[in-house]
Design brief:
This protein is mainly beta. Helices cover 13% and strands 33% of the residues. It is rod-shaped and about 100 Å long.
Length: 190
């Protein structure tokens, strides 16, 4: 590893309060000590902070010296900020962006849920309508979004057509009529 250059600022730890666990055997309650915050890491389950807790260690000559014990702790459960300290300069490792799903790569992005009803005609006589997916180019802007039950109710109306351009017909026809209407062209007789 190359030594840090003058262009790279040396990261220095900042103070943070660490909550130590209670010890039922000794009868002590939770305590807080000020430690050094070295790094933050985002994980799938939350944040971990690498803190340096003040401690002692034995020297080879039999003496004792101040030392630091580094450990990863959960935030915010085990750490508290120190008033007036800027934590923006702490080295922070964010989760990498999730890899794109192979299914999404093949199928593309999902369309918005629901359906919208486009009313046709001038208001005289039976109202004709067309049911669309909400992202269909022919769908009316600002139309209320229908859930599956509402869309099926509208689709059962003989004056309602299902749009074939956006896939509404392909999605709802099997639900309305079952799969019996789908035939295998290889076995169909003329």
């Amino acid at each position: 590893m190359a030594p840090p250059s003058d262009a790279e600022p040396q990261r220095v730890p900042v103070p943070v309060r660490v909550v130590l666990p209670a010890d039922l055997l000794l009868g002590t309650e939770q305590q807080e000590v000020v430690a050094r915050l070295w790094k933050r890491r985002q994980t799938n389950t939350g944040w971990l902070y690498l803190v340096g807790l003040p401690s002692y260690r034995d020297r080879e000559d039999g003496g004792v010296e101040a030392a630091e014990y580094r450990v990863w702790v959960r935030a915010p459960e085990h750490v508290r900020p120190v008033d007036g300290v800027d934590y923006d300069q702490v080295t922070t490792e964010h989760l990498p962006a999730p890899a794109p799903s192979p299914i999404r790569e093949v199928l593309g992005e999902r369309r918005p849920s629901g359906w919208v009803l486009q009313k046709l005609g001038d208001g005289r006589g039976p109202t004709r309508s067309v049911l669309h997916a909400p992202d269909c180019d022919d769908a009316p802007a600002g139309a209320p979004l229908l859930d599956l039950e509402q869309a099926l109710d509208a689709a059962e109306n003989p004056a309602t057509q299902l749009c074939t351009r956006c896939g509404c017909a392909q999605e709802l026809t099997p639900v309305l009529r079952g799969f019996e209407h789908i035939t295998d062209p290889a076995t169909d007789s003329p």
